Amino acid sequence: MDWDAFFTLHSDLPREGPGDRDSLDWALSLAGVPHDGAICDAGCGPGDDIAGLLAHVPDGTVEALDLYDGFVAQAARRFITDPRVTVRQGDMGALSGPYDLIWSAGAVYFLGVTEALTAWRTVLAPGGAVAFSQACWFTDRPSDAARAYWEREYPQMTDIAGVNAQIAAAGYDVVGQRPLSDAAWEAYFTPLEARIAELRPGASAALAAVLDENEAEIATWRAHRAEYGYLLSVVRPA
Predict the structure, then answer these.
(1) How does residue 11 score in pLDDT terms, banded at 50, 70 and 90?
(2) Which residue intervals define the domain Methyltransferase in the entry (predicted)?
(3) Distance CA 102, CA 26 (A)
(4) In sequence order, which ranges of the chain are alpha helices (DSSP H)?
């Protein structure tokens, strides 16, 4: 992966993975975060979920962090005038807390489900919860094309039972789960497609390779969306 080319493509996109306001509202309603609660957006990317999180804690705070400084800068620009929001560069495996909710959209795989939940248990406030989305198989017989793609990208991917076993191994109970909708995927892919089309003319070899990889991701999901997706889970320490 040429990271300069990757960030040329992904710079200033609204999202860095599937998700939408409907799925966020569903999760936050289940989590029962108080109006003056503290939320951590772990792996916030460019910060597209921050406004939705703030809507659930109008008298509270959101701390958003990401490892990549470019995404941190983008998210910080979006909320520079809101004193309820803190955006910083940091490791989501080393949070401070306490938080009433840790929200992590499509980023838990960097640590592993069990590992992330174990690390986060100590920084949750009493009664606190974690809401996260994770790539997941929805069939035990995926097509060759879908399996080949994910064996390259994330060979550890498992099914719903496997995700739930990882949650249980960290000592958490599942409050609720549902797959992300097609609309949540298109909220990521539609702007990404437009950026690919914009960058394709005159792209260097390195950038063209990154564009090809992202086009393959989009095409694979659209052809095999019934076989896999992102599972959104709301969990709480047992």
Answers:
(1) confident
(2) 39-128
(3) 15
(4) 3-10, 21-31, 50-56, 69-78, 113-121, 144-153, 160-169, 182-199, 205-224
Tokens of 199: 């960058």
Domain that holds residue 84: 3-237
Q: What is the pTM of this model?
A: 0.95
> What pLDDT does residue 84 have?
96
Tokens of 6: 């990757």
* 207: three-class secondary structure by DSSP: helix
Closest listed residue to residue 228, CA positions, set 104, 135, 112, 107: 135
Q: What CATH number corresponds to the domain at position 123?
A: 3.40.50.150
d(Cα 176, Cα 150) in Å, to the nearest integer?
A: 25
The strands making up 124-137's β-sheet, listed across from edge to edge, are 85-89, 61-66, 38-42, 99-105, 124-137, 228-237, 172-179
Structure tokens, 15:
């999202």
Query: Among 8-12, 131-135, 230-234, whose mean pLDDT is lowest?
Result: 8-12
Strands 85-89 and 61-66: parallel
Based on the structure, what is the number of domains in the chain?
1
Contact 60, 34 (CB under 8 A): yes
Of 114, 106, 115, the residue nearest 134 (C-alpha): 106
Helix (H) or strand (E) holding 136, with range, is strand 124-137
